[in-house]
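Justification of resources, computational component.

The compute hours requested in this renewal are based largely on the per-chain cost of generating structure records like the one below. Each record pairs the submitted sequence with a full structure-token output. That output is archived, and it is also reused by downstream analysis tasks.
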Amino acid sequence: MSNSVLGPAIAGFLLGASLIIAIGAQNAFILRQGLLRSHVFVLCLICALSDALLIAAGVAGLGTVIARSPVLIAAVTLGGAIFLAVYAALALRRVFDPHGLSAAKTGETRLGAAISICLAFTFLNPHVYLDTVLLVGGLSAQYEGAARAAFAAGAMVASFAWFYALGYGARLLRPFFERPAAWRAVNSIIALVMAGLSISLLWRYFAP
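The structure output for this chain reads:
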């Protein structure tokens, strides 16, 4: 992979990972199913493909619209920087008030019901549209051609990597994820990455 697309791919991966690795209903559900070894592959695939679809829509649609408007580019860049800074602050707050992520040991769910729950966690969450369509799609406007595609691909790979790692690694990682100290470390990393991305956006915008 050439340097012209490697940088955007890494940036997209870091952004996608920072946005997706957080304690929430969707991750808790995947962790629970992973602990039960119940429909793990299908559910992880649904979550990852849903993210990929929304990211592609944002990059192909919103990203193109924003790319043609300097005013919108400025708005998304500054808005994205603020959004990432707020997420960093929230992650930092969770460092000082962490909670373990628990999951039930029992309660097998039928495939149809599990898919319905998974889709609800994904598409009924307003943050998923803010993260994927607006933020990732909008920030992709700073790239063109292959670099923009690489940025989107990096964000998509982060989703696939996270969901399958969480789903299949759940049984091994259960003691880790149930300890507040572990989430303190995870949230510290999230805060640092998001703060770094926010600063880089502001630097790129205000640099002469």
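The radius of gyration is 17 Å. The longest helix spans residues 146-177.
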